[in-house]
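Sample A.
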Amino acid sequence: MLAPALGAGSLRAQEPPPFQLQVDYSSHGMVSAAQPLATWAGVQILEAGGNAADAAVAAAYAIAVVEPSMNSIGGRTQILIRLPGGDVRGIDATTQAPWSYDAETAPTGDYGYPQIGVPGAVAGLTRLLEEHGSLSLETVMAPAIRLAEEGFRVLPGEAARQASQAAQVAEFEGSREYFLKPDGSPYEAGDLLAQPVLANTLRKIATGGAEIFYRGEIARAMATDMEIHGAAVTMESLAEYRAEDAVVVRGSYRGYELVGTYVPAAGAQTIEALQILETLNLRAMSAGERALAVGQALTLAAQDWPLQGSPDMAARVTSKAWAAERAARLTVGSPAQVGAGEGEPQPDLESVWARLPKGNTTHLSTADSEGMMVALTQTLGPLMGSKVATPGLGFLYASTLGGGYLRPMAPGERAATNISPLLVLKDGAPILILGAAGGGMIPVAIVNAIVHFVDEGLPFPAAITAPRVVGGLGGPLFMETHQGPGWSASVLEEVRAMGIEVREVLRTGAFGRIHGIRYFSETGHWEGVADPDWEGTALGARRQGGGG
């Protein structure tokens, strides 16, 4: 069955695609995203003649509408682009503290107006389209506008997330109007959620671009609301914001080239963990030993997070010499009592892993018939971000400034995140484009999946489905054990027999959710995979559109 073309009158925006797949194949392009309607938006753009950048922007705006607990146009975005000729670019559109911000005098809180920084998503998506897209902003935003105007059926996971935040959302006028029913109750699974106010905001962006959002009518509405409520964001700070070049970092793993983005993203952390593991012969290990090694390598890389920031440190933590030095601390096969070296900071990693976030952030990947690939991660921070939506605009703001979700921010600083879009190549040819959602579990998910793919030789869908692990080095090893992909009882027992404390994690999605694409150069086909721990889909274009 062929998917209808963009703008076909037979398709209402709230209806799901004619097929729901977590694995799909196509030679005409691919989209993998965390919500089926966002996937569908990207595929429609591919089939209408768009390239991977066009499809990514369409899917990103659409998912901001249909997965509002996880991301928003008031949030932050990190983007990695592989161009058809092989060049790799990165865009940093992370939320930012205004240059006038003073953490010592600013009000604090776990959520609310004090948490709001300058949004980055609109600037990032606009730049992606202007520099690498082929269609107009009005065209690629059309699916998102239809979804907001006509509404969509709320999926069970989204309904549960919104319900969990309903009490805090109810504290703010705009948020109550847009994300609660008239009686104050949250939307339930299957309810139609229409957002005409957001649709109106999106239409203004579609015609006015980033200019209207950061320096025009929308900016004035945001700044006025912020001033009334004592928030840090001002008209000047909005006008000053720019989506910047991301620092692209590189490494390698067993002959595969790894390409990611540096702070405020976590690409270096992901690469470091894999290069630590490269010093070991994982294939010769038992399943339990391999799981312990992966957990320890991830913990060592996480310990190095406070060291990162300058470009000089980017080169250092992604070097093979650094990986070898850190690998000397691995204690695979014996009780893991090694921590940071004497005199080094000792992060409370046990509490970090123990929190295992219920889930925030969303990731999508796109590819087209000409070889362009995009990995794009958007987030609000915690579920529903700051919980604040400005009346008359219809979208939530991310949680950014210190005092709650993140540490206190310096003036002009961008929020450090665990976001890690990643490109994997072999002999210069693309193999994988992927990323994940799940807060601190983002590098965890990606590293586990690549070990399953490279060292265990699993097909890409099986590598994403296979169980994940993190921890060790003086603390417990957290192991995924929910029904389906969880570690077997025999592996758990093997790890315990080494003297390692095991914490079983039963919650679905606790170890991150990957949405990625594999390329088969021998056939020219794309394989899209959506993490089975989520409600997303992968879908290929069913006919030749544009590209490149």
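Sample B, a different protein:
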Amino acid sequence: MTEAQVAANRPLPRWHYPVALALGAVNTLSFAPTPHGGWLQIVIITLLYLWLMRTKGCKSALLTGWAFGFGHFVTGVWWLYVSMHFYGGLPALLAWTALALLALLLGFFPALAAAVWSYGISLMETGKRCPSLQAGYRAVIFASAWALGEWLRGTLFTGLPWLASGYAQVDGPLAGFAPLAGVYGTGWVLALVAALLAQALCAIARRHPARAIAPVCAAALCLVAALALARISWTRPAGAPISVRLLQGNVPQDMKFDPANILRELDTLQQALTAKPADLVVTPETAVPIPLVQVPFSFTSSLQHFADTTGTSILFGAVGATLTPSGQMIRYTNSLFGIRPHDDAAQGYFRYDKHHLVPFGEFVPWGFHWFVQMMYIPQGDFARGHAVQAPFAVRGHFVSVDICYEDLFGEEIARNIRHNRVQPTILVNASNLGWFGNTIALDQHLQIARMRTLETGRPMLQATNTGITAVIDARGQVRAKLRPFTVGALDATVQGMTGLTPYVRSGNAPVLLVSLLCLMAALAFRQRSRPQQEPIR
């Protein structure tokens, strides 16, 4: 038996999977609020690839990826425990159990990627190729499986793309790929670079330094390409800058929907909206905590009067309702409503209804009503808005809006820009992250918004209840922000942008197509490499 066969039959050490889990936990540090975590992430994914190279077959690769994914998600989205326990009233043990089960579910996707990679490289063993070609083949298979796994996580069962690996690159070396291929394409390049570096290290460890040259050069080429792409301006200024005012109410989540406080909240909101004029004033999600049809007429009339006398346009969040001809409410929506000055040429009724709803928060998945009924969080069975909705016109600019969770789905934001009758020039996200307390969820959400600006080449205005309220320019840089958990208003000037980035034009299709073709090529390679059987004589 050869040395290679002996190594293949040697069982993995007991600490193999705990180390993979620890790597996943450390990977959470790659994301916000860690500065420049993109470099750290390259190191971690490189170590993960080295660890996967120790596995023997699809099963051990799958378990290694699952351990990594569980460690990553249980530490990365632990703030869901805050919403379930402190605000939802779910018993602590049950809340932690629900978090662990969710982490196991999300961990399945990196596990699937690891298993597909393991199967893909096993096909390579049937043929004989030069070591450099094999290293490149394995790296491409890993990148393709990794990207498809992340895309599936962001798509299946309405999707949860939070902590997609590309988000960590917003301040990292690979950010230049975002306007070209989006967050999943950036993750594809990340996985490719990590795999190449890992195989170079492996070649050096095995005393074959010459075999490390090609992978290192390929990885360096990716980094140089990212730096070059980051210097390209895919969009250009449109019109004159506008003044904006973003409100942060900091209404405690346990008081926000309390009937005893609603009138006081409305009065406070009205004073904040009319305190100072601007071209555009934006409130957080559901700043009006009751359906708009129940709001006193004096509230909306005062806003309209302020808009008429100051030239201010207003976007405010409220629950919308559609009435039947008989006057009965038949559907509720999580919405943003717009008020313009009457002398505005684009005057008219504006309403945006949230399209991508949050499971368990805005609709209850089939079979989970028992779980929702155990919590005290106000639940809604909201109706969905249209996938493409007209933007809000403000002084020659067109503002494309989305609400909270929708900010995670870059493909949908790109589609709204690509297919709209008028091209939006500014993005607005209205959110309420008060459900998650003072946790890393706030910083992670801001990082997600910054990725959307890189993908679309447009500035983003993010108005939130508790934070982080911020103005982000078209290159993903935070130009101004409010301190979380404070009451305030953020005043800034924003330059709208026009033009389409490659990602807005094509969405996720290119990276999905490339990944699928690479995996299909692996199957075709197996057919070519399979030895011919001797004919029966």
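Observation for Sample B: Residues 92-124 form the longest helix (33 residues).
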